[in-house]
Amino acid sequence: MKVLIADDDQISRMITKAAVEQSGHECIVAVDGDSAWQLYQDHSPEAVVTDLMMPGLNGLDLCRAIREAEEDTYTYIILVTSHGSRKDVLAGMEAGADDYVTKPLDPFSLHIRLLAAQRITSLHADLARYRSALTEQARTDPLTKLNNRLKLTEDLGQLRSREDHDYCLAMVDVDNFKSYNDIYGHQAGDAALVAIATTLAREVRKADAVYRFGGEEFLLVLRDESVLGARTVMERVRSAVHDLRIEHSGDPDGVLTISAGVSAFTDGHRAGTEQLLREADLALYAAKASGRNRVTLASALRSE
């Protein structure tokens, strides 16, 4: 465990450092509250042993600063007081300290508190990992492992706040997929969706994003992309799916194909995301109506 010691008294620092290291922990030492705060930000220690009275930030101020800065981590704070008065202890706990020891420091007392610190910070680290995993799971489609509608909603919200950046939305649908399921079964259908999802993700840039929109529909967000650039991308994607050669006897092409409709957020067309989604969906419908296995631009429909 990494432990930050903050104390302006040299002898106290030496005693505390020796006790911490004897307990088997790594030590970082600060000579006042301001340097302690800087070292905390630089090294993110799991535990802090801080004197109450110091130049710069005092122990209470340091406690408050640490608690305000914490997000998914937790720092165990042990306050060192000269007399252990009830007033000092209460003030420390209210400021965010977890425990306290009194001067002169008893190494055994500190060792016991560091054991508790290690247990508590380990539990918080486990909880943070579980929260992160659950957050990712809630935003991931279980079949294709693509982003899902919840993640899409969040990402589109971020795009709305960047009105000076162009982007395109591409709504993609697997052609004649219902008949594919009827002929080959849902297990084969799931495998086909996974293969197509993998292809979509592979054919776009890392800056772009692919989402499972629902059923056999996908949505691609192409960042900082022009309309013509988006069409080029989607033609490449369409061709890559065709080249998978997933047999489909119920399709005129004999293989699974996709159709796509593209809308764009560009100069002269700063539409809201809901309108862009509708435009991409209408363009997709036009692609389907005109023969499938093709890409249609929403801007072309508006100009008709």
Model description:
There is one protein chain. The chain has 304 residues and is of the alpha/beta class. It is 50% helix and 19% strand. Strands 2-1-3-4-5 form a five-stranded parallel beta sheet, sandwiched between helices. The protein is elongated and about 85 Å long.
Oligomer state equals: single chain
What integer value in Å does the Rg equal? 30 Å
Cα-to-Cα separation, first versus last residue? 67 Å
**How much is the average pLDDT?**
92
Query: Strand tally, please?
Result: 10
Provide a count of the helices.
Answer: 11
- Percent in helix: 40-55%
SS-based class: alpha/beta
**Main β sheet profile:** 5 strands, parallel
Overall spatial form: elongated
> Proportion of β residues?
15-25%
User: Which parts are unreliable, with pLDDT below 50 for 5 consecutive residues or more?
Assistant: none
Order of helices and strands: EHEHEHEHEHHEHHEEHEHEH
What's the arrangement of strands in the largest beta sheet?
2-1-3-4-5
In short:
With 304 residues, the protein is of the alpha/beta class. It is 50% helix and 19% strand.
Features:
11 helices; 304 residues; five-stranded parallel sheet; alpha/beta
Blueprint (SSEs and pairs):
Elements: E1 2-6, H1 10-22, E2 26-30, H2 33-43, E3 47-51, H3 59-69, E4 76-81, H4 86-95, E5 99-102, H5 107-138, H6 149-160, E6 167-174, H7 177-184, H8 186-203, E7 209-214, E8 217-223, H9 227-242, E9 258-265, H10 273-289, E10 295-297, H11 298-302
